[in-house]
Specification:
About 35% of the residues lie in helices and about 25% in strands. It is α/β, with parallel strands linked by helices. Bound molecules: adenosine-5'-triphosphate. Adenosine-5'-triphosphate binds next to strand 2 and helix 1. The site of adenosine-5'-triphosphate has 12 residues, from strand 2 and helix 1.
């Protein structure tokens, strides 16, 4: 699934590749197949949204693609490097410097200032803070005057901007975002989505976002639709109405299938 960046920027190869990735959860003795032989290539410098009905495997896909979890079978590579699915230390090492995360609940450390939260990943890696990049990132997310505040002193939207700055400052190959606007009102959500747009266009970042929101998804270059652990459709240059329509269609299809299997 290669494509030219919808934003007109040069696309340099695939930054993420999944080959025959499957995930079966089997802790309770009742196996649940959450991902089913997924093949996927994401071009560098693009913004991709992942959508699908509840339980379709979106979070599992994000977790397996980002090295937060291991697939049961198949391969994941980031910028041509196969992910090291050895032990937890290998995985953590692999993620560091390559992958940034933005979660729905921000995941900031309350005892640290904004500045300390943003630079934490660099300090964990033992890396020097690049002052120029830090200044550019902080300015971009409009937090220059909040650097010495603590998360509790910030609004939800501001906290999410800290999380985005924390992801951007390490210049990762991919930022994975899991429902990043889920806890925000429409206005704040719009600001966060604009930041992702700018991260892609101005910083050449690759962003992959799971969302339930057709408006959020319409900011992406491409929307991938998951059903029952499979990518069943994709939409380039999405608009909210078309995304909502496709989600409704897929929801009805799943409901019909479930009704048939129950009768
Ligand atoms: N730890 C787990 N153990 C067992 N089954 C799981 C586990 N995590 C997820 N599942 C199952 O795997 C399937 C996919 O779940 P996943 O959370 O990836 O879906 P999703 O599309 O992100 O759902 P939602 O939109 O509701 O968040 C579901 O059937 C879910 O019940």
């Amino acid at each position: 699934m290669n494509r030219v960046g919808a934003l007109g920027r040069p696309v340099v190869g695939d930054v993420l590749r999944l080959t025959s990735v499957s995930k079966v959860y089997d802790r309770t003795g009742v196996p649940v197949s959450a991902l089913n032989n997924v093949n996927l290539s994401i071009a560098a410098g693009t913004f991709t949204a992942i959508m699908g009905p509840s339980g379709s495997g979106k979070s599992t896909l994000l977790h397996c693609a980002s090295g937060l979890d291991r697939p049961t079978s198949g391969e994941v590579s980031i910028a041509g490097q196969p992910m090291a699915f050895g032990n937890e230390t290998d995985l953590t090492r692999f993620r560091r410097g390559r992958i940034g995360f933005v979660f729905q609940q921000f995941n900031l450390l309350p005892s640290l200032t904004v500045r300390q939260n943003i630079t934490l990943p660099l300090r964990l890696e033992g890396k020097r803070v690049d002052r120029q990049r830090m200044a550019a990132v902080v300015e971009r997310v409009d937090l220059t005057r909040r650097l010495d505040h603590h998360p509790a002193q910030l609004s939800g939207g501001e906290q999410q901007r800290v999380a985005i700055a924390r992801a951007l400052v390490t210049n990762p190959q991919i930022i994975f975002a899991d429902e990043p606007t889920g806890a925000l009102d429409t206005h704040r959500a719009g600001e966060v989505l604009d930041l992702f747009d700018q991260a892609v266009r101005e910083f050449g970042q690759t962003v992959i976002m799971v969302t339930h929101d057709p408006i959020a998804a319409s900011h992406a270059d491409l929307v991938l639709f998951l059903v029952d652990g499979r990518i069943v459709d994709e939409m380039a240059r999405p608009n909210p109405a078309a995304v909502a329509e496709e989600m409704a269609r897929l929801g009805e299809e799943v409901a019909r299938r479930h009704a048939r299997s129950e009768s």
